[in-house]
Structures are given as structure tokens and as C-alpha cells.
Specification:
Chains: A mainly alpha (330), B alpha+beta (385), C alpha/beta (335)
Number of helices of chain A: 16
Number of strands of chain A: 2
Oligomer: heterotrimer
Radius of gyration of chain B: 28 Å
Order of helices and strands of chain A: HHHHEEHHHHHHHHHHHH
CATH superfamily of the largest domain in chain B: MetI-like
Helix content of chain A: over 70%
Number of strands of chain B: 4
Shape of chain B: globular
Strand content of chain A: under 5%
CATH architecture of the largest domain in chain B: Orthogonal Bundle
Helix content of chain B: 55-70%
CATH class of the largest domain in chain B: Mainly Alpha
Order of helices and strands of chain B: HHHHHEEEEHHHHHHHHHH
Largest interface: A-B, 48 and 44 residues
Largest sheet of chain A: 2 strands, antiparallel
Largest sheet of chain B: 4 strands, antiparallel
Structural class of chain A: mainly alpha
CATH architecture of the largest domain in chain A: Orthogonal Bundle
CATH class of the largest domain in chain A: Mainly Alpha
Chain lengths: 330, 385, 335
């Protein structure tokens, strides 16, 4: 077991290293660099004409004239050693200030979404497989096709419309106006929970549709396994049998794709955030891209991907815990 | 002789003969014919195929089917409601469908001028009318449109947007753009997957491990943020065409890993089959062995994967354009059109701007159904049932 | 004789896309307490389906004909009419496992891979013996020791994938026996094993049967195995029993052409130079059942005009023996 964990851990570190290179590549991709944008930002509206020499000076001051691999090294060592993601030029403040507690909001949203996803898809998928061919099963199949076809921003708009219609105005965003900038308190947390369900529901939508199909398919396979027949032949009561034998194995593919679900959720996050007016990382990422504030964008991209990699690791561990064959490396 | 045969053989009923002939045809059919036969039995998949065919057809000949150009404005009818052709109104019925004309009126509350239908003015719908000159398929000059109304009026089947552009016409042009971006994206990712997956799967060993690692990294970064990062790097002064091709390239660049994995694992599994080893011993070049000996054994799986990856391309393009990181006006795609429909206010006041969304849903659904149908049809073991 | 189980007129139909098929038609057999019945036949002959019907393990698309009678004499002296049990009946749950145990061809697939052997045994012991905790575990260890598994105290906590094929089949037997059934149904239990291990498992089953005084239905396609273990044998072909009787008699003097064919197809070590004689042709699918005698399409002695017209009826020949063949009808009529 220790060896199993160690192997996964090493794999995770290596992946993260490669991811950081990839992210840095994307940060460097847009035409122009930090110095250009910083200079234009700093002097715009001041009447000063920005010259090439001034930009060159900023560049030299910040060490941006050095080769790319050195700059990458500066960037990544700043993050790993000091938690320093560089400066956000459009805010003229360190990236960490801009991010603030948005990381926690994003994680909260993520876990709320995952909770909804699994609480809905696992029991319903199992039910559909047991009642295979029934009207309910048929209806769920239609739903999951539609669920995969409906773009999330459209769903977000529809939900927003319905919520406005039936629950009154304040549903968008993550907080009510009076809590937006208030310090954290129990009342603020409760306010967050009241706002969280809508984006979590929208984000969970396609993940539910996808996992529903997975659970239903695996459960159908498992139901036909000899081990289920054998257990029935030993007189195990039917409900207990379903839970202990096929259902237990049917959640394995769900556990093994937690990372994919997180990936899918983060993938949809910026767009859903734009529609629902969420003030967390997804929304900030979109703004940073539009402003070409690549230090902020890179920091967020790296954070989101790190969360995915960590969740992959967690899913590996969970799978090892659930399945002795994997744990023992068989 | 024939008579004797008939006497000797037990009489074959017509049903039996039909059954026997069906079996003989079945045994003689090629792999692709079999797949087509099985596919045809999937009613949902056939419906999906029909929808896609229709969309492609309308998109391809948008210059003919759309009554107006994609940027043509009707300044008299801004944010106008859809005009459905009717046969009857308060003034009686007519065999030829018509719409009501509009007149401009001042809103008593906001005092803004707005277009309201004039029930006393009838504009009759005509087919094959003269319209704006355009080039069909990019080269064929035509000025005939599939339909229009007479009397110099305008017909806006699905209403107009805030600039008075015809939503129906724009949707047809958008269909062309969005579908073609999907096709190009899939083709590019397929070529990349073929090269990268092919190298990994054929050579195996360390080459494979390195490629696997890189693939893993691209797969672990969330897709849309990755697309957005690449799209954000497009210079703002690029032309519509440049952006269009850059978009296809970006979609292709991010889309290949899944397909590459499939190709790699398939290649690895047949790498040591006797016929591949024989070809290698005979001195064939790797590219030739892959192309002529190995790929054909799983072409049907690749096609299924290609079809299934379409929805992702279309949804990604729509999402990117929707938030302003994809195609930009004056280009028109489903996502670009939906950019105008970002708020709840639009649902309340001009819901017809959401019509392109129905196309997105329909196209994704159709591709998914066709993909599922193909997957079932391509699986030889599904025949058992 | 003390009849433990008797099955009469068992017919099973399945609904399929191509219409109903009937893989088992009018099968009757029985087992006495403490005796072994062997059922032999090729795959597709309906032998597994028949025993699944005994445990009511058939899927929802299957149905039994109204003439079917399955009577089982339970440990408490009551007679259970198996065909009338409802799926959620307590009596059915007691029957499964507690009265009749079952082991299958593939021991690996019969265990759930994510629970230890002990977990699955203790579950069964709890259900049928009312033992809990320590006592249940002790009994599980004892059963593992009884089937010849070394160091059962550690093996009981192992997972199926940690055991070899032969050991898994032993564990499977221990699992089925841990509930203390009076009848064990063994569905090709040795087919998936190496020959040497096959013999060990057969020996073990024979010993256990003697020790526990248990009846057994042993299903196989191998008449050689039947000869070693069964007191009586029923030969099945395409859903009907074509010949039955005491094992020694049937093997020494096979009456049905199919039984003879099966016997000739067994390789013998003392006849290495002789060619094997397989039964020609394949067993037809139940949806294309030949008219008349089902075996006539492969029978070397088929009589045109007779065998393709009418299905032969079962004819009693001597003590406890019966055969279903027109040749023997004719022979008897002539006698």
C-alpha cells in the first residue's frame, strides 16, 4: 500500500512539473509581454508618450530580458518557495491579492457540485440499470442525451430566468449585496450556501448526465456477473445483494473519473461564471484572458490544474481503498 | 434435370427461400455494408443523420436559402419579432401565405419609436424571388433567393436582432461556420492523433512513455480554459479569416489526445500480430505498415471516435465565441450569435435570439445519436442480439 | 428410497427477439438423499438451465410451463413446491444456500473480487446458520480446512485474486457447504481446472459427500468424470433426457446412439493408436429444433420416415433405466 501511494505521489509531482511548463508556455503566448502591458497601463492617460526605451528599462528591471527558461525558473520558484505568483498588471498589485479568498469560494463551489453530481447520478443510475427497459429507464436515457447536448451557459440562463421568475431577484452571484464585502461570519456563510446551489446545479448538470450513463452501463454489466448469481444462489436477500455486490462495483468507474469530473466542471466554470455573475476564479480567469493579464491567468490555470491533479490522486487512493486488486497491484 | 431436382429436394417455401437469400447476402456482404445495415436499424441514429444532412445542406447553400445576407440590416425593424406566414387574418383568408407589413409608431411609455405590425398591410410570400446578389459556394453568382415577400417588403421568419439583421438568414450562415469549424477541428485533431498516436503505438518503449506523459498533461488541464488561453493569444488585429483558421487549429490542437490514446492502444495491441511482424520482416517502412496493415483493422472504431468528438468541437467553439474569445463579428457562428443573448433580459424581451441555441442542441444531439448508432453498428458482437 | 428432490415435466421457455425458444422440454429427474446424479450433455443441451430453474435463478425473460413440478423435501420434513415460490419468499431464500448449495464452473467469477473469501463465507453462515461474530468466522476457517486449504486462518482473509485456480474452487466448495445444504448442485466444477487438479477436486467432492451425507447433482460434458463420481446418470440432448439409469450400466451398455457417441469420444490412454471418434456435427440451436427426434440430424442410425416424423417417447428398459429412441421402441415392439 505504501508503495502504491508513493508511486502515485511521484507521478503527481512529475505531472505537475510538466503542467507548469505548459501553463508558462500559454502565459508567454500572447504578443507582447508584461513590460509592454505594464508600461501602457502605468502611463495611459498621463500624457507621457511611452517609448521603446522605457519599456526596455522596465523589462531589464524585472529581469524579463533573460532567456525563457530562466524566467520560467523565477516564476515557478517564486510560487513553490514563497507562494508568489508575480504582479497582476491590470490591478497593479500582487496576484495573490487579486485571488484572495476566491480560491476557497471555488473549492466550495467545486465540492458542492461534486456532491450534487454523485448524490444524483449514482442512485438513479443504479435504479435505471435494475429497472432496465422500464419507462423510467427510458426517460433517464433521454434526459442524459439532452443533458449532454444542452450548452451549460444556456442552462445557466434558463435557470436564472426561472429563478428570477419564481424566487425573486437575488439569485445571481455568490453573495447578497450586503455580504459581498463583509468579513466572514456565519450569516455570510449561510448567504453563500443560499447562492451556491444554482451554480452548483448548473455545473453538475452535464456531469450528472455523463455519470448517469456510466453508472447505468457498469451496473447493467455487473448485474449479469456470475458473482451476483452465485450470491443469489446462497440466499442473500435481494436488496442487500444489489447493494453489496453489483452496486459496490458500479461506483468504481465513477470514483476513477473524479478527476475528469473536476476537469469538466472547471472547464465550464468560466462561462457559467460569466452568465451567473459568480465572483470566483472562473470569472477572474475569463477577465484576465480578455485583459491579457497573463500572470493572473497563469496562476489560476495552474491552480485549477493542480486541484485536478490532486483530485486524480485522491481518486487513485479511493480506488485502491475500494478495490483490493488495485491496492495489491494485481 | 431441374424438374428432378425439384422432386428430390424438399420443397422450399417462399419464406424459406427469402430467408436463405437473406443469409447468403449477409455472408457475402463487406464489413462496411454490414455496418450500414446495422446502422440503418437504429431509428434515432438515422434521424440524427437526417438532421445533420439537412443542416449541412442548408448551410452549404445558405446564399440561396437565406433571404438576406449575414450583415444586411433592416433599420426599420430592430429587435423585431418573428413573422410567421399565415393564411387568414381579420380581413379574410388567402390561398397564398402572407405576413403583415410593419409601420413605425412611438411607444406611449418610453417614447421610443418601434415597429408594430400593420394588420391592413399584406405582404405575400413568394418563392424563387430576386434578392441581393451573392456567390453560391463562393463562386457561383446568383441573385435568386428561395423565398421572400413581394412589394419590396422584408420577411423575418425568426425576427431580427438589435441591429435589424435577419436571425433566420444569420442562423443559416452560422450553421455553415460552426459545422465547418467542427469538421476542420476534427480533421486537424485526427491528423495530429494519427501521427502522435501512431508513433507512440508503433514504436512503444521510451518514445511511447514520453508521448504518454505529454498527452496526460494536455488532458489534465481543463479544456475550455486551455482553449481560452490559446485563443486569447490571437492578435486582436487579425482578420476574420485568420481568426477562423486559428480557431480550427486551436480546436484541433487541444482535441487530439483522446483520439491519440485510442489509436495508440489499438496499435499496441496488434503490434505483434503475425501479419504485422511479417510486413516488418519484409522490410516495409513503418508509415506503410501502419497505414496499410494496421489502421484498416480498426478504421471503424476511429470513425466512431471522430463522430463522437464533433459535439465537443461544436460546444467548445460556441462557448469560446459566446464569451468573446472565439470568432469575432462580423464573422457569424452560433456562438457569435448567442453573444447577443447573454442576459435574462433577452429571454424576456427578444427570446428569438436564442434560436441558434436550438441549433447547437440539435446538432450536438444528432452527432451523439449518430455516434452511438455507429458504435453499435461497428461492434461485430452486437449482432448476437 | 428416500427421495430428496424430484423434478417432473420441467419445460423452460425464453422470450427472445426472434420469438420464444424452449431450451428444456419435459425433463424429469430426481435425487435420493446422499446419492449423486450426474447430468451429462454438450453445451446447449439445457443442463445448466435446468438446475438454475431448480434454484429459481432464471432471468425474467424465462418462464416455466404449467406442467412443471419440482418437489423438494426440506430438512424440517416439509415438502417445498419450488415452482410455486414467490421471488421474495423467505422459503426461497432458505432453499437457496441453506437447503441447496450451488457451485459454478468459474470460481474466479463466482466470488466478488472486492470482498475477502471469509467475508462472503461469513455472510452465508450468518444467513443460514444464525451464527454471528467469532463463531461464524471459526466455522468458515473450519470449512476451509475441511476442503483441504492449508493455513486456513490466514487464507480466510485473502481475496479471490490471491489464490490459485484450484484453491479458488476449493474455497467455492467451502462457501457452498458452509451453509450446510442437503443437496449440492455442481455445474461443471472441474472444467476450468488443470487435469491433475481436476482429479483432486473430484476426490475432495466425493469424500465430502460421504462425510456430510449430502446429495449431489453433478453437471458435466465429460462422461469420464461422471463415471468417477455419479451413482446415476442422465444424458441430455437439446433439452430432453435421452437416456438415464445407473452409471455403471449406462456406461457398460449404452443404448442411445448419442450416449454411444459420447463414450467413443473419450480419449483412452490404452488406445493411443486409435483415432478419436467425435460425435459428428454441432448441436442445433433451440430455435431450430429438428422435427421428430432432436438427435436425428447427427444420428448415424437414423431411420428415414420414422425419426423425422415423430418424437420418440421414453421407454423403460430394465431396473431404473430408460431411453428415448425409436430404435428401442422398435426393438421392444418386436420382442
Amino acid at each position: 500500500m505504501a508503495r502504491f501511494v508513493l508511486e502515485r505521489l511521484l507521478g503527481m509531482v512529475l505531472t505537475l512539473f510538466l503542467v507548469s511548463i505548459m501553463v508558462y508556455f500559454i502565459m508567454e503566448l500572447p504578443p507582447g509581454d508584461y513590460a509592454d502591458r505594464f508600461a501602457f497601463r502605468k502611463y495611459s492617460g498621463t500624457g507621457v508618450t511611452v517609448t521603446e526605451a522605457m519599456i526596455e528599462e522596465i523589462r531589464r528591471d524585472l529581469g524579463l530580458d533573460r532567456p525563457a527558461y530562466l524566467r520560467y525558473f523565477d516564476w515557478i520558484s517564486g510560487i513553490v518557495l514563497r507562494g508568489d505568483f508575480g504582479m497582476a498588471y491590470s490591478f497593479l498589485t500582487p496576484v495573490t491579492n487579486v485571488l484572495g479568498d476566491k480560491v476557497w469560494l471555488t473549492l466550495g463551489l467545486l465540492f458542492a457540485t461534486l456532491l450534487i453530481t454523485y448524490a444524483v447520478s449514482i442512485p438513479i443510475g443504479i435504479y435505471a440499470a435494475v429497472r432496465r427497459g422500464s419507462a423510467a429507464d427510458y426517460g433517464l436515457t433521454v434526459f442524459s442525451y439532452l443533458g449532454l447536448a444542452l450548452p451549460n451557459f444556456l442552462l445557466a440562463l434558463i435557470m436564472l430566468y426561472c429563478a428570477n421568475r419564481w424566487f425573486g431577484a437575488s439569485v445571481g452571484g455568490l453573495f447578497s449585496p450586503q455580504f459581498e464585502n463583509a468579513p466572514w461570519s456565519l450569516a455570510k456563510v449561510w448567504d453563500l450556501v443560499k447562492h451556491l446551489w444554482l451554480p452548483a446545479f448548473v455545473l453538475a448538470w452535464s456531469a450528472v448526465a455523463y455519470q448517469l450513463q456510466t453508472v447505468r452501463a457498469t451496473m447493467s454489466d455487473e448485474l449479469n456477473k456470475l458473482s451476483v448469481v452465485a450470491a443469489r444462489a446462497r440466499g442473500v436477500p435481494e436488496t442487500r445483494l444489489l447493494v453489496k455486490y453489483p452496486a459496490r462495483l458500479a461506483i468504481n468507474p465513477v470514483v476513477s473519473t473524479i478527476g475528469f469530473d473536476v476537469n469538466r466542471i472547471f472547464s465550464e466554470l468560466p462561462i457559467v461564471a460569466a452568465v451567473l455573475g459568480l465572483t470566483e476564479l472562473g470569472d477572474l480567469l475569463l477577465k484576465a484572458y480578455l485583459d491579457l493579464d497573463m500572470n493572473v491567468a497563469g496562476a489560476i490555470l495552474l491552480m485549477l490544474t493542480t486541484i485536478i491533479v490532486v483530485m486524480n490522486f485522491v481518486s487513485d487512493l479511493l480506488l485502491g481503498w475500494l478495490d483490493p486488486r488495485i491496492r495489491m497491484g494485481a | 434435370m431441374a424438374v428432378l431436382d425439384d422432386l428430390r429436394a424438399p420443397a422450399e417455401t417462399r419464406a424459406e427461400r427469402r430467408e436463405r437469400e437473406r443469409r447468403e447476402r449477409y455472408y457475402a456482404a463487406s464489413q462496411w455494408t454490414l455496418i450500414w445495415w446495422r446502422f440503418r436499424r437504429h431509428r434515432a441514429a438515422m434521424a440524427g443523420l437526417a438532421v445533420l444532412g439537412l443542416m449541412a445542406f442548408l448551410g452549404l447553400f445558405a446564399e440561396f436559402f437565406a433571404p438576406y445576407g449575414q450583415t444586411t440590416r433592416n433599420a426599420q425593424y430592430l429587435n423585431g419579432a418573428p413573422q410567421w406566414p399565415m393564411f387568414c387574418d381579420a380581413n379574410g383568408c388567402s390561398a397564398r401565405p402572407f405576413i403583415h407589413g410593419t409601420r413605425t409608431e412611438r411607444d406611449p411609455v418610453t417614447l421610443r419609436s418601434r415597429a408594430v405590425p400593420d394588420p391592413d398591410m399584406r405582404l405575400y410570400v413568394r418563392f424563387f424571388v430576386e434578392g441581393e446578389p451573392a456567390r453560391l459556394l463562393g463562386f457561383l453568382p446568383i441573385s435568386t433567393r428561395f423565398f421572400g415577400v413581394d412589394g419590396g417588403g422584408r420577411i423575418h421568419l425568426w425576427g431580427t436582432d438589435d441591429l435589424g439583421r435577419d436571425v433566420f438568414s444569420r442562423t443559416l450562415f452560422a450553421t455553415r461556420t460552426s459545422l465547418s469549424i467542427g469538421v476542420m477541428g476534427v480533421v486537424i485533431s485526427f491528423v495530429l492523433a494519427l501521427i502522435i498516436g501512431g508513433v507512440a503505438g508503433y514504436f512503444g518503449g521510451i518514445v511511447d512513455s514520453v508521448i504518454q506523459r505529454v498527452t496526460e498533461v494536455i488532458r489534465v488541464i481543463p479544456v475550455i480554459p486551455l482553449y481560452m488561453g490559446l485563443a486569447a493569444a490571437m492578435p486582436r488585429d487579425w482578420t476574420t479569416t485568420q481568426v477562423y483558421f486559428a480557431m480550427t487549429l486551436i480546436l484541433g490542437l487541444v482535441g487530439w489526445p483522446t483520439l491519440a490514446r485510442r489509436i495508440r492502444s489499438q496499435l499496441l495491441s496488434i503490434r505483434n500480430e503475425d501479419y504485422v511482424v511479417a510486413a516488418r520482416l519484409a522490410g516495409a517502412r513503418p508509415s506503410r505498415i501502419i497505414a496499410t496493415h494496421m489502421l484498416p483493422s480498426f478504421t471503424s472504431f476511429i470513425i466512431v471516435d471522430l463522430v463522437i468528438s464533433f459535439p465537443y468541437m461544436i460546444l467548445s467553439e460556441t462557448a469560446l465565441s459566446f464569451v468573446g474569445l472565439g470568432l469575432r463579428p462580423p464573422a457569424v457562428s452560433w456562438g457569435v450569435m448567442l453573444q447577443q443573448a447573454q442576459s435574462v433580459r433577452v429571454i424576456e424581451q427578444t427570446p428569438w435570439l436564442f434560436i441558434p441555441a436550438a441549433f447547437v442542441v440539435l446538432a450536438v444531439l444528432a452527432f451523439t445519436l449518430v455516434g452511438d448508432g455507429l458504435r453499435d453498428a461497428a461492434d461485430p458482437y452486437s449482432e448476437a442480439r | 428410497m428416500d427421495r430428496l428432490l424430484s423434478v417432473e415435466n420441467l419445460s423452460i421457455s425464453f422470450r427472445t427477439d426472434e420469438g420464444p425458444i424452449t431450451p428444456v422440454q419435459g425433463v424429469s429427474f430426481g435425487v435420493d438423499r446422499g446419492r449423486t446424479l450426474g447430468i451429462v450433455g454438450e453445451s446447449g443441451s439445457g443442463k445448466s438451465v435446468s438446475t438454475k430453474a431448480l434454484m429459481r435463478l432464471l432471468p425474467g425473460s424465462a418462464s416455466l410451463s404449467p406442467e412443471t413440478r419440482m418437489r423438494y423435501r426440506a430438512k424440517n420434513g416439509e415438502t417445498v413446491a419450488i415452482e410455486t415460490l414467490k421471488p421474495r419468499d423467505r422459503a426461497l431464500r432458505r432453499l437457496r444456500g441453506g437447503e441447496i448449495g450451488m457451485i459454478f464452473q468459474e470460481p474466479m467469477a463466482s466470488f466478488s473480487p472486492v470482498y475477502s473469501i471469509g467475508n462472503q463465507m461469513i455472510e452465508t453462515i450468518r444467513l443460514h446458520r444464525g451464527l454471528g461474530g467469532r463463531a461464524a468466522r471459526d466455522l468458515a476457517v473450519e470449512m476451509l480446512a475441511k476442503v483441504g486449504i492449508s493455513s486456513p486462518e490466514t487464507r480466510v482473509d485473502q481475496y479471490p485474486h490471491e489464490m490459485s485456480g484450484g484453491m479458488r474452487q476449493r474455497a467455492m466448495i467451502a462457501l457452498a457447504l458452509s451453509a450446510g445444504p442437503a443437496l449440492l448442485i455442481a455445474d461443471e466444477p472441474t472444467t476450468a481446472l488443470d487435469v491433475t487438479i481436476q482429479a483432486q477436486v473430484l476426490d475432495l467432492m466425493r469424500d465430502l459427500q460421504r462425510d456430510l451425507g449430502m446429495a449431489m447433482i453433478f453437471i458435466t460434458h465429460d462422461l469420464g468424470v461422471i463415471a468417477q463420481i455419479a451413482d446415476e446418470v442422465a444424458v441430455m440432448y437439446l433439452g430432453t433426457i435421452v437416456e438415464r439409469g445407473p452409471t455403471r450400466e449406462v456406461i457398460r451398455r449404452p443404448l442411445h446412439p448419442y450416449t454411444r457417441g459420447l463414450l467413443e469420444a473419450i480419449p483412452a490412454i490404452d488406445r493411443l493408436d486409435a483415432r478419436l471418434k467425435p460425435v459428428p456435427g454441432d448441436i442445433p440451436s433451440p430455435s431450430q429444433r429438428p422435427s421428430g427426434c432432436p438427435f436425428r440430424t447427427r444420428c448415424p442410425e437414423a431411420v428415414p420416415g420414422l425419426c423425422d416424423r415423430a418424437a420418440p417417447r421414453e421407454t423403460a428398459v430394465g431396473e431404473g433405466r430408460a431411453v428415448r429412441c425409436h430404435l428401442h421402441d422398435a426393438a421392444r415392439a418386436a420382442a
